Amino acid sequence: MFLRFGSEEINNHSIYPDWCLTSDHSLLTITLPIVEEHIQTKKHMVVKDSKEEKTFINKVINAIKDIDTSNLSDIISLKNAVYTFACSLDIIWENNSKIVNITKHSKSWWDTNCSRDLEKYRLTKHIEDWKQFKNIVKSTKFFFFDLKIQEITNKKWSP
User: Fold this and answer.
1) Rounded to an integer, what distance in angstroms lies between the CA atom of residue 18 and that of residue 147?
2) Burial tier of 129 (Cβ tally within 10 Å: 0-12, 13-18, 19+)
3) What sign does the CA torsion over 75, 79, 56, 46 have?
4) Is the pLDDT of residue 158 over 60?
5) DSSP labels for 55-109?
6) 0.70 cut: is pTM over it?
7) Distance CA 55, CA 147 (A)
8) What is d(CA 15, CA 98) in angstroms, rounded to the nearest whole number?
9) Is the dihedral of CA 83, 88, 90, 91 positive or negative?
10) Do 89 and 60 contact (CB within 8 A), yes or no?
11) Selection from 130, 152, 51, 153 nearest residue 98 by Cα
């Protein structure tokens, strides 16, 4: 049995020599703590390239400009300035993001172009609009997952 050295939760095992039956090996057991996990079902988000994203970015830029840096002479005043900025950033995020449900059908690659073309197809029901929607979905997925592969490759230096 290989256990993690220095871990109090995992590095505790029990040896039962009486349970060996016909074998000359003793049975080893370990109790693993299983922590209850909270699975988030809602999140705040700002749609990429939307009006809300532009507003959010502009307000963050203004909040950065409004930071009073004239009296940052000690650690306390620096911490106060950072805390004030963090609070204003939280307020800006709350005001410009929307709450969405996270489901197994949520798609991180979906963008405004996909929504626009799907809405266009739903209104017209033309086969050409359906084909255009499918092409946009295909190219959006390709671009998104190609970026993800690049991120993983660059992060780990291997595929």
Assistant:
1) 57
2) middle
3) positive
4) no
5) HHHHHHHHHHHT---TT--SHHHHHHHHHHHHHHHHHHHHHH-EEEE--TT--TT
6) no
7) 26
8) 54
9) positive
10) yes
11) 51
**Residue 115: other Cβ atoms inside 10 A:** 13
- Tell me: pLDDT of 159 over 60: no
For the chain, the domains span: 107-159
* Residue 120 region by backbone torsions, left for phi larger than 0, else alpha for psi between -120 and 50, else beta: alpha
Report the alpha-carbon distance of residue 106 to residue 44 in Å, rounded: 14
Q: How confident is the model at residue 100 (pLDDT cuts 50, 70, 90)?
A: confident
Residue that has been written with the tokens 């016909």 in this structure = 22
Whole-number Å distance between alpha carbons of 41 and 99: 10
Residues 6+ apart with CB under 8 A from 101: 41, 42
- Beta carbons within 8 Å of 48's beta carbon, 6+ residues apart: 111, 112
Q: Are 110 and 51 contacting, i.e. CB atoms less than 8 angstroms apart?
A: no
